[in-house]
Protein 1
Amino acid sequence: MRKKLKPGDALFQGIIYMLFGVFTLSCMYPFYYLFINTISSNDLSAAGYIKFYPRDIHFDNYSKVLRISGLSHAALVSVYRTVVGTLLTVGASAFLGYLFTKKEMWGRQIWYRSIVVTMYFSAGLIPWYITMHNLHLTNNYLAYILPTIITPFNIILVKTFVEAIPPSLEESASIDGAGYLRVFWSIIVPLTTPILATITIFSAVSQWNSFIDTAFLMTDTKYFTLQFLLWRYLNESSSLAALIRNSPDMAASVQNMQTPTSVRMTVTMIVVLPILIVYPFFQRFFVKGIMIGAVKG
Amino acid sequence: MGVPSGKLQHSAEPARRTRGTLQSKYKLFLMALPFLVITFIFYYLPVSGWIYAFYDFIPGIPLSDTPYVGLKWFRTMVENPTQTAEVLRVLKNTVAMSSLGLVTSVFPVIFAILLTEIKAGWYRKMVQTLTTIPNFISWILVYALAFSLFSVDNGVVTHVLVQLGLVDEGFNFLASSSHIWLTMIAWYWWKSLGWGAILYLAAIAGIDQELYEAAEVDGASRFRKIWHITVPGLIPTFFVLLLLSIGNFVNNGMEQYFAFQNAMNKDTIEVLDLYVYNIAFANNFPFATAVSMLKSVVSVALLFAANTLSKVVRDESII
């Protein structure tokens, strides 16, 4: 199959290999840079000497930062909302997406459209805040879970995906006496695994990354998420470093003192790590799920 | 979405099932009902809060004790010169950044086309996998990364640029207001380019290979094949996405701008969404509500305009 390249082709190939190489590096380098800085000597890092490889490797930053009071609790809150929120969102999207493929549903078009339109239109920040307040969803875990159950984009994805499944499969099941729930559980769910996996990662990532709801609705520290703490640390990390240095049980060795930069970077790394770890497992579903779900528009 | 295949199917339905239909019609609705209620509570109920735009509402005082002021807050937008200037400034930022977004929405198309030209499969896969990662981190995290890379005293970018003699010592990129629109669009594409290309990659994979083979037989060059086969194959997808984004022209979202805003760049970074947030935090609830209201009305109008356009031009509706 190997054909000889013409000089023009070779040049073209060379250029696009390089362009993609540069862009890919620019996407990865920030993560790598952050990582090598968190495990290198804090003094060298603070002076800006750590650029391409780590020096004087140590993991003090992680062990110290993880002991900052409130941080591990915030991690728990983040994990909790990610797990519970994702399960409910995926379940609801799958079921409702399936129901919307049933042409016999009363008022189907209207209900479906009224959900899709919400992607474009929102009441606005203040009316939303006041509503959440009136529903007693301020300083309440449910505020992280309930509003995310219906995510229009997910429902569109599932609906389009289910519509592409040959109807004969469902029909044969219903002739055998299976009801809607039965059909959903034993036929639709197994056949929609790629799109459900895609929705799972979408929803998990957006739960993990969510920030605005904490900023607005939560004043009690026990509801703070990692993302929210990171934002606060970005603005006040110098006081945080002092906090670590001064606490008696954490007497740091003089040569490896935590600096504002090291604390900030370490917290960033802790927040970003779960995404980097989970990502490869789900990546293979994306193209398949998105392709079938959305290309038809 | 919105393809009227339903009508066909109905007439083809065997008579056997019509008896069950009446029951299942409501049964299906009842199964969907809990979810519709959630939608109503979290998406439609907040609309009732628009009423606050018509009162001199101050947080903490019940609405019934606050004076009704009619269109006062809407009028200040056009009557009060300082307020008008503010709104115009924010509109300018919004339109500028949205337009930049629309103009550059060909980037993912180019990315996908060039990527499929890459011969080595492993390289293609690697590029695709690694460039989609940034899409999955939050803007707060993007900012944290930017903060580390561009920080004045120890950021690697500043260091390298200073060593090359390209900038003066300690130039602070993040606190600079010059070129902020370009910086923002650059960060936007850094985050979403790889991901945005996935749809187009899928669309390219769906193009009939025989077309390429036929073109090859006819002696078409690489660029002719791209121009006459790949590009037309991608146009439908491009159009759908473009029309969808027109509906969102005034919604830039706020997380990106919120993360990157500071005292230095506030004037040029403040888009409508962020502006609403900022005046809301300054406790001007009624005015923030009035601005949100107008924003939503404009969005929906744009969405329906785009939808109608799509129906006329391409005989396809997006909602």
Protein 2
Amino acid sequence: MARTPAELAGANSGAPFEITMDGRPVPALPGQSVAAALWSAGILAWRTTRTTGRPRGAFCGIGQCYDCLATINGEPNRRACLVPARPGDAITTQEGHGHARIGV
Amino acid sequence: MPVSASDPYDLAVIGAGSAGLAGAVTAAGLGLSVALLDAAPQTGGQFYRHPARAIGAARPEALHHDWAAFAALRRRLERSDVRHLPGHHVWAVTQEDGEQWAVHAVTGADGTAERSVRVRARTVLLATGAYERQLPFPGWTVPGVVGAGGAQAMLKSGLVLPGKRIVVAGSGPLLLAVASSLAVAGARVPAVIEASGYLGYARHPRALAAHPHKLVEAAVHGAALLRHRVRLCTRSAVTEVHGTERVAAVTVTRLDRDWRPVRGTGRRIDCDALAVGHGLVPQIELATALGCATRRTTDGTLALTLDALQETSVRGLWAAGETGGVGGTQLALAEGELAGLAAAARLHGHPVHEGRLRALRRRRDRMRAFAEAMAVSHAPAAGWTDWLTDDTEVCRCEEVTAGTIRAAVSGLGAHDARTVKLLTRAGMGWCQGRMCGTATACLAAGEGAAEPPAAHRPVEPPAERRPLAVPVPLSALAASPDEPAGGRPDTAPADGD
Ligand code: FES
């Protein structure tokens, strides 16, 4: 019986690479989203809310809820559940808002 | 086929899930030029979501039912002339000079590549699927609480789990599928907490009998749940999450018939994650922005009104799959094919193959009847708002609490979601009410007001009209008028995969 999803799906990706979350190294598999890499490292929150400063991470997993916003390589408001992880990506906790770049 | 790059496509399909794929390959097979736009890097939609090729999954089908049906569609797509445009986030569809459509999209994995694309087409098929319906409860914003569909999506695409011990809760048939895939993938699932009963199904024996396929599916999930010793608790809900930095446990409470918590029945289940969802909501804002007629489904969501051949009330705009009411992948496949046939008949004057048409319509009508019977059994009943405390956050984006919304309703006289939104900002944030729309509408309608029977109570849609279907970088908006008006985008960026 499978103990991990990767075993179940017979994943045989290239070598894992490293990204960082607030400076801490986190392994990622080629093809995984930033959120997926963080989840597999047991990290469930990478943003704090604007008003009460509470922690948030991925919720809907499909780009609809915007709870998973992260600052990736200095760029705020990236949806971590959609953005593929790339070697050396520096993810930093996004604090508060970052409405500056987005309309709506 | 168009003769020049500036010609419009015959058909633009938005969404590369089951419905969109079926529509695209059917139409292309009948000689139409087709563009297939989708936000994801690869085809499959939510149901057939699977890891990017780079992950090297030798058995992607291990997490799927009916993978063969998708594999066949994907082969047909590869052999066709359909222009697949992955990584295209469509934010509006507009009609240009009467007969022609323009589909506006921004590109990139999350739509921030700031390249703006306009695809012109003679007809459009909307196959944008659905998103999950959420009902708030104390603690639902704690990290480790994730959408049931979200957990499924992250598992299917990223091969990850949100925790080791995951409670699955909410209502609707999706819960069983989610619980069985989490358990099969190695999570411990102590319980599935379903707010409805399953007795409702018994009231629709004919719809059930006509669907051996669905019964087999249920049996497969049931067997997996038994094998992994997952308990199913019906007429219960998670009414509180414990933990601040992350989930430590949940409280599960019995519900009465109206989904009101029964006092003194709460019990704690230790877990490190909760996957929760209350069914699905059709994603139809591109169509409602164009004024397409809508209807209430049996569980109170809003879906597009479609004619016998899947056309919306706006001529030249078809819709298939969950946009016409949530009904699952088999239904989506039938509807996509129907829409493809209909669009080809309209454009090329093909006499539609009558036999095929009749068979498809029969299948569709049968499956719709089943889906509606199922939906009514799991529709949220009015008493769920008793789960809320005044400081429960309802709007996750703007951090608006139930207390604030109740004050707007009782103190300021707001009686609809729109007024509540203006007074409290609930639904004004990033997700534009997709997560809190159902809840806000229920609270705005007022608790204790004279209501139709719970299952038939209309639930207002998250936001019937959004100016833009997805947030768009201002720079992309500013750039869009300068884009060449040609039907063909200059390049098709394929992100990810
Ligand atoms: S988790 Fe909802 S947008 Fe990423």
